[in-house]
Specification:
The protein is mainly α and about 200 residues long. It contains eight helices and no strands.
């Protein structure tokens, strides 16, 4: 009961901060000249798919584009895991395992992309300080970029920690071959308290 109330408060604060941030962004957008954004709907949808989802503009620089795309697509793949984690705040040990083989397909994809995002973001953080490309040498943006990358790393590490603890506790669902392999190397009995620490840290970050 206490965990549920605390988690609800965390969600309320998070949504409040999100709304506050969105209001600031919208206020900046309103400074610009008005523009009709309902014309040429077909082309706008195509541009959204190509630029936002396929990350086409970022691939002008192939290496940087691959790094950004890996992070973006990785988080898209992990979205169901995020929803699963939120629901677990209200339903103990909740999972979408009732989806059967489709869930196994989702979890194995999440497992691969989870570690891919961790490696990619860690490399991107190092690249900000060592072997930095000319276009990233503007030090004014470095603190913000560093904070964002560190937060993403913490999100991924706590997620991995949660899954490894689930392996130890025997509550892991779906197919997570990389996580199960790493858990075998650590060889621990597992701890419900440790799992909760990872879960809270993951959701707070």
């Amino acid at each position: 009961m206490v965990n549920t109330i605390a988690f609800t408060l965390l969600l309320v604060v998070s949504f409040g901060f999100f709304i506050y941030s969105m209001r600031n962004i919208i206020s900046y957008l309103k400074i610009g000249k008005p523009e009709n954004r309902l014309n040429n709907i077909k082309q706008r949808i195509i541009n959204t798919i190509n630029i936002a989802f396929l990350q086409s503009k970022l691939f002008r620089s192939k290496f940087a584009g691959l790094l950004h795309a890996s992070i973006f697509w990785g988080f898209c793949v992990l979205l169901l895991l995020v929803i699963e984690g939120f629901l677990e705040g209200y339903i103990h040990n909740f999972s979408f395992a009732f989806l059967g083989k489709f869930y196994s397909l989702i979890t194995i994809t999440q497992d691969v992309f989870g570690y891919l995002v961790l490696v990619t973001v860690t490399f991107s953080l190092i690249r900000r300080y060592i072997g930095t490309p000319e276009r990233l040498k503007d030090k004014s943006s470095r603190p913000d970029a560093t904070l964002i990358l560190i937060l993403i790393i913490l999100v991924m590490l706590t997620m991995i920690g949660m899954n490894i603890e689930k392996v130890f506790l025997g509550t892991i669902r779906g197919a997570r071959p990389i996580t199960i392999y790493l858990a075998g190397l650590i060889n621990n009995d597992g701890s419900e308290n440790m799992y909760r620490i990872f879960w809270w840290a993951h959701n707070i970050v």
